[in-house]
Amino acid sequence: MGESRGSARRRRLFWKLRQRWKLLGLFEIDKDHDFYPLTCDLKEGLKDAVQDTIQTEATQSLLTDEDYSAKLTQGHEGYVMRTYAGPVFKQFRQSLGVTEESYQRSLSSCGLYLQFISNSKSKADFFLTNDKRLFLKTQSKREVHFLLQILRKYIQHFQSYPHSLLVKILGVHSITRTQEKKKYFIIMQSVFFPDERITGRYDIKGCHVSRWTEPEPEGSRVLQVFKDLNFEGNVICLDQQRSWLLRQTELDTHFLRDLNVLDYSLLVGFQTLHQDEKNQSWSLANLIVRTKRSVNGTGSPTTSQCASVPGTVEEEGESTDKEEEGTEFSGTPDLTSARRVPMKRIGQQASTVSNISDVIAQNRRLLPNYKNPLHVMDGPELRYFIGIIDIFTVYGLKKRLEHLWKSMRYHGQEFSTVSPSRYAHRLCHWVETHTV
Fold first, then answer.
1. Cα–Cα separations (whole angstroms), residue 225 to 12, 16, 199, 343, 419
2. Percentage above 70 pLDDT, the chain
3. Is the pLDDT of residue 236 over 90?
4. Contact status, residue 23 vs residue 14, Cβ threshold 8 Å
5. Helices 86-95 & 100-108, crossing angle to 10 degrees?
6. CA 403 to CA 395: how far, in whole Å?
7. Are strands 134-139 and 183-189 parallel, antiparallel or unpaired?
8. What value, to the nearest 5°, has the Cα angle with vertex 63 and ends 61 and 66?
9. In this structure, is the dihedral angle defined by the CA atoms of residues 185, 187, 190 and 193, taken in order, positive or negative?
10. Which residues pair with 187 in a beta bridge?
11. Residues 301-324: pLDDT tens digits?
12. Gene Ontology cellular component (predicted)?
């Protein structure tokens, strides 16, 4: 017994050392991991929380103030789980083509959660579901309250621009375990999904100060996310889709600017296309299917009665889940008009985009028949995973003082803490100068 306890203690010590070294990677949260009891409670609590939405009748098409302020409290042995704005996120998941059953399955499968160890300066904990589809990230109380305050605007942004690059937040919860402080966390789709063939990952802020990650020795199996200075010498080659990316980056960053937000990141992942995925000639039938998907949604049976934002993470074995069909059509129209159309309610019936002017105004693109299509774009040689994350940092007094201090310390250099207007412009400039 003493030897067993000593062995467990050594394993925990080694784990803590790995955390201290700030190595980037994914590690299974097994029975010897400090987070194992927490993740078991999360699985059980989230399963019951989603089960409540499954058993609840379909939400009405127009969300109410009560939906945005809703709070569901569920007691369990040893902890309490709370779900915030549940009806809103349920409808948003439906709009993305994510069924409640598949969402529940990812969150509560018997497979172990994974911990992602980040070099982020925040003290947040990052967990991945075992299928790597969903991220769970701890947030401060202030960040969660800010998200709930802007939630209506966040939803409206996706109604106006269904192909937005912004991270897809699928739920907000808190868990209070016995004799522990309340933990808030959000659930979001992973930008880097599926990740099996991704060969490079970057976190871009458009500046240089503290934006270098020292690569691991050659042959290391540690998963790393690099930064701006590591990216130098690379380019995102999108050909005719470049204009769409420039416009959507502008739309999304201007939205964040208007929220007085900064310090968000543009995630970029690279994946080499197989030879049979390059320069494919599309049949008329295939193009019609993809165009319908891009304009009207994925056609999922669960969303056939509501406006669908085509961002489905497909179930295994579905007909559209064909990796060999993942290449973007080179003839995608240039949808860069700034003209807006009236917002459409998520869940509103008869919501089909009726003419090309709506498509142009919403800056839609021809989506690939691929998992996670809203974050996937194909160039001539590479597949790119692109998304904007970490959208909760407000430019308040603390950040203004940080800006003043960094202005003196890094005089003449580009650092991360600048005004939201400057931050948005700088990230747009980075995309413009690093794409062809």
1. 25, 20, 10, 36, 25
2. 76
3. yes
4. no
5. 110
6. 10
7. antiparallel
8. 145
9. positive
10. 136, 171
11. 333 334 444 444 444 444 444 433
12. plasma membrane
User: Two tokens at 242?
Assistant: 């470049």
Is the pLDDT at 283 greater than 60, yes or no?
A: yes
The H-or-E segment that residue 26 falls in is strand 25-28
What CA–CA distance (Å, rounded) separates 288 from 300?
Answer: 17
- The answer to whether residue 148 scores a pLDDT higher than 70 is yes
Q: What is the arithmetic mean of pLDDT over 356-360?
A: 80
Tell me the two tokens of residue 5.
């306890």
| DSSP code at position 267 | E
Place of tokens 């030879």: 275
* DSSP-based three-state secondary structure for 272: strand
The three-state secondary structure class of 309 is coil
Separation between Cα atoms, residue 310 and residue 97, nearest integer Å: 7
24/147: higher pLDDT: 147
**Helices and strands in the chain: count of H runs, count of E runs:** 12, 14
Residue-range domains of the chain with CATH: 2-189 (3.30.800.10), 200-433 (3.30.810.10)
- Summarize pLDDT for 111-134 with one digit per residue, the tens: 999 998 766 666 789 999 999 999
Say which amino acid occupies 163.
H
Q: What is the mean pLDDT of residues 49-72?
A: 89
Rounded mean pLDDT of the chain?
83
DSSP codes, 108-130: H-SSPPEEEE---SS---EEE-T
Q: What tokens were used for 241?
A: 């889709």
pTM: 0.82
Beta strands in 205-306 (DSSP E): 261-262, 265-272
> At 248, which amino acid appears?
Q
Tell me how far apart the alpha carbons of residues 143 and 178 are, in angstroms, rounded to a whole number.
Answer: 23
Q: Of 135, 111, 113, which is closest to residue 124 (Cα–Cα)?
A: 135
Phi, psi of 176 (to 5 degrees): -120, 110
